[in-house]
Structures are given as C-alpha cells and as structure tokens.
Design a protein that fits this description.
13-stranded mixed β-sheet, three-stranded mixed β-sheet, 375 residues, Elongation Factor Tu (Ef-tu), domain 3, 12% helix
C-alpha cells in the first residue's frame, strides 16, 4: 500500500485533478473512516524539502488500496527535534468536508412526500451545482457530480423544511434518520481526468439475525476480538418529542412524535423542540397562502426526528489482523450490521452496526480499531 497525492486546480467552472506523487516511506498513517460523520486522516513522515514540496495544503490524499475514500490536506505541522529527528504531521478530513464550506440557502420546503434521495440531491445541487449566473455561480463546487443511484433506505419519504444549516452537517443528520451514509470519492475517466462523485449508500445486514448474507461474528471465543470496551448510556436518551412551530402562547402550532409504541410513565423521556423557524406561508405568483395543517404538522414531526436520541449502546474493539475468517473491505464493510459477543462477560450484541473504522499503519504493522453502535 502507498499514499497517492493529487493536485487540484480550478479553472472557472472546470476542475483538473492530476496524480502528482506517490509515497510509501511514511512513518505512520491513520485512516479514520466514519459512517455518520466526516472521516479524517493523519500522516507522520520525515521532514525534508521533497516531502514539504509534495504534501501541500489543499492537495488530495488517497490510498492505492482504497478507491472509496480520499482526504483533503487541511493542516501541516513541522516538528524539529535534534534527538528524534524532524517530522511533518499532515492531517485533514475526507472529501465530504467540501460540503462543510456551504450553508443551505435559500429556504427549501418539501410539502409533499418526497424521497430523502431527491431531497438531499436537490439541496446539494442548489448549493453546490446551480448554474445560475452572477454571484450564485461562485458557490459552485467545480467537478462535483451527484450519483443517480441511491440505496433503498434513501427511498424513504418525508415532508420537511430547512434553511441556513451547514450543508455537510445537515446531510449527516439525514443519514442518521434513514440509516444511510454519504460520501464523495474520486472517479477516473477514460482520458485520465478525475471527477468528484457524491453518492448515497447504506450498509448490509451480515448479523446472525438474517439469512440472506454470510454471518460476520466477532467474538473472544473465535480469537478475532483482541480487546473489547462496551458502554450502555441512557443519559441523553429521549423518545418523545414536543415540537412547537409558529405562533405565540396557546396559539402556537405544535406536534408530537415518538417511535414505536407510545411511551408512558417512567418509560417516557421527553424533549422540547423549538421549530418556530418553520414557516407555514407559501408565496405563489405574489400571493401568500398557508400550508394545510396536516402538511405543516408533517414538517414539524420531521424536525422532531432530528432530536430523538436512542439509548447509546457502543463498543470499541481491536480486531485480530491474522483472522482467516473475515477481511475488512472484502467480507464486511463500514456501515454493515454484524454480531459482536464477549462470552467471558456474557455480553452479546446480535445486531450492531459498524459505524467507524480506524486503520493504523506504523512500525508495529497494521491494525484495525472498529467502533460499533447499537440500533
């Protein structure tokens, strides 16, 4: 495995991405891929004029064995030490961070049931790809393309309204609602040009609770679970939302939302959601009308989905690298549901999602540190 360094140049609306250098002499590499947030990377390498000229702010970092995730250099730190030598630490986030450079405006309102794919596609297109003239054109992200394919979870529908939120953070909020993920990767064309591809996908169920796919089980009894940290936390848990929209006092419009069976007594954990920014006014041909009550209620409930918090069931482990049963990115992938069990403690998580994976390359070899999160 080696590191690839790409030069990115913008010429008007066109983007040129070229492979500038490759590097296989780094001291360490951390590759932190996340499912519900933007991943990060860090490279630790000897400081010399050649490396300083190669690793520059704004260049894209890739790996020869990973064509799904690419990073953008955001931070360069030089450490000079007479005893231990001179080193550079290069770090940054993955390409989804491009969306963090935009806010959502103007207001987007989806008053009829619309798939989350179409919602996200419309918002990203309007804020990153709109071909309007004048100042709006300067908001474009040249070279960005939206994939026309989206996994089944993105076909769920909703009615919602959104404005002025950070675009990347909002997209990941939607990811958590539907159980999917978003990513921007590089795609090489026949003429050796590269494009930025924004796509929406989801993980696969490989747990013991299903029969369609081979089971993936990490267990101390199988000797493929070297370390195991487990946490169950109800501190921030809330399962019943009171959402309040426009209006004042008793006239303020409101809605409630809960998942599954109506929670009662000690099992109800309530949260207040301020949604007064959701407008029920619609302007058509210069005439202002109000949304029907049921459509406005649906938008209030959609806002409430963002505030419901599940019980946090999370574990972080170290997986055996000499495991002959399962290989990461061959037998299982980020976002997949697997089974994790620790027989010595009597803990069994029959279906838990792989939401993060840190790959570490250093003088000690290669290691994997996954993070699992319960449904």
């Amino acid at each position: 495995m080696y590191i690839e360094i790409y030069e990115m140049a913008v010429n008007g609306e066109n983007l040129s991405i070229t492979l500038t250098a490759v590097c296989d002499s780094f001291s360490s590499l951390l590759w932190d891929v996340e499912y519900y947030s933007c991943g990060r990377f860090e490279i630790y390498i000897t400081a010399n004029p050649t490396n300083l000229s190669i690793f520059q702010k704004g260049r894209i970092i890739g790996r020869s064995d990973d064509k799904q995730h690419y990073g953008i250099i955001e931070k360069i730190q030089i450490s000079a030490d007479a005893e231990n030598g001179d080193y550079i630490t290069i770090s940054g986030r993955f390409l989804m961070s491009f969306l963090s450079r935009r806010i959502i405006y103007p207001m987007f309102r989806f008053t009829s049931e619309t798939s989350y794919y179409e919602i996200v596609k419309s918002v990203v297109w309007r804020n990153c790809l709109s071909d309007k003239s004048g100042g709006e054109r300067l908001r474009n992200l040249p070279g960005l393309h939206i994939s026309e394919f989206a996994s089944p979870c993105w076909q769920k529908t909703a009615q919602l309204q959104v404005s002025y939120e950070n675009l990347m953070e909002w997209v990941y909020k939607i990811c958590e609602i539907v159980g999917g993920t978003a990513n921007i990767r590089l795609e090489k064309s026949a003429d050796d040009e590269y494009s930025l591809i924004f796509e929406l996908s989801q993980g696969t169920d490989r747990s013991v609770l299903q029969t369609e796919n081979p089971h993936i089980v990490f267990s101390d009894t199988y000797n493929n679970l070297l370390s195991f940290d487990y946490m169950l936390d109800t501190t921030d848990y809330c399962n019943f939302a009171h959402i309040f929209g426009q209006g004042e006092g008793l006239q303020r419009k409101s809605a409630t939302l809960y998942n599954g069976k109506l929670p009662t007594y000690f099992e109800r954990y309530e949260v207040y959601v301020d949604a007064r920014d959701l407008s029920d006014e619609v302007e058509t041909n210069g005439e202002t009308t109000h949304l029907p009550a049921n459509e406005y209620t649906a938008m209030l409930q959609e806002r409430g989905k963002e505030k419901l918090v599940s019980i946090t069931e999370k574990s972080e482990s170290t997986i055996a690298m000499n495991d002959r049963q399962y290989k990461y990115n061959r037998d299982y992938f980020l976002g997949d549901y697997v089974t994790v069990q620790h027989e010595r403690f009597g803990l069994r998580q029959p279906k838990i999602q792989l939401v993060g994976m840190i790959e570490s390359f250093d003088q000690n070899g290669y290691s994997l540190t996954p993070t699992f999160k319960g449904e």
